[in-house]
Amino acid sequence: MKEITELHEKAMDLAEMAFIVKRNNITESEKLFRQAFEFESQAARLMPDDPACALTRAILHRSAATLACDCREYREAERLIGAGLAGHPPEWVAEELRELYEQVRHHLKSRLEAMVESSMESEVIIGQLRYADDVSSKRIIRLIDERGYSRDIIVPPGKMREIVRPLWGEMVTVTGTYHGDEILLTEIKPLAI
């Protein structure tokens, strides 16, 4: 329990600093919110699923979900809210979690609508596959084009292994659609020479 308390206190200190610097330095504020979120979500994960701890567990999950929203990690916030509600919290905390879920749902719906709106725009990118990240919340590959510029492309779920293994280091042609300012992979193939 001591480790959970220490993680929570670090998270709250970082969140407070993030609010203080937000007016003058948004980049630093975002970095502090991200660190606070990481500490608080870790504390929430460590909290035992014990009926005697239901209140504390739910509050930690609500706090971690709120920080996830501050980081625009709405899917992670959704998961944390679900975990907080699953622990049978007192009704007043459950209601706060439900209200937070409605906010998260609104953001997710808005993001989806923006993706649908912008999905008409597509782009073809030619470059060498030099980076892959299947661990973070976004599955990303990075191509380096002939001019040395890098382009990040989001990979649909379940596709990373079939792309990276056969095409690593190869010149490829990627077709993707814009979703806001991000490119979502629709097709990748070796460059025909």
Q: Could you walk me through the main structural features you see in this protein, from its secondary elements to its overall organization?
A:
- The chain contains 6 helices and 5 strands.
- About 55% of the residues lie in helices and about 20% in strands.
- Helix 1 packs antiparallel against helix 2 (about 25-45) and helix 3 runs parallel beside helix 5.
- The chain is elongated, with a radius of gyration of 20 Å.
- The protein has a 5-stranded antiparallel sheet.
- The protein has 2 domains: about 1-115, Serine Threonine Protein Phosphatase 5, Tetratricopeptide repeat; about 120-190, Nucleic acid-binding proteins (OB fold (Dihydrolipoamide Acetyltransferase, E2P)), CATH 2.40.50.140.
- With about 190 residues, the protein is an alpha+beta fold.
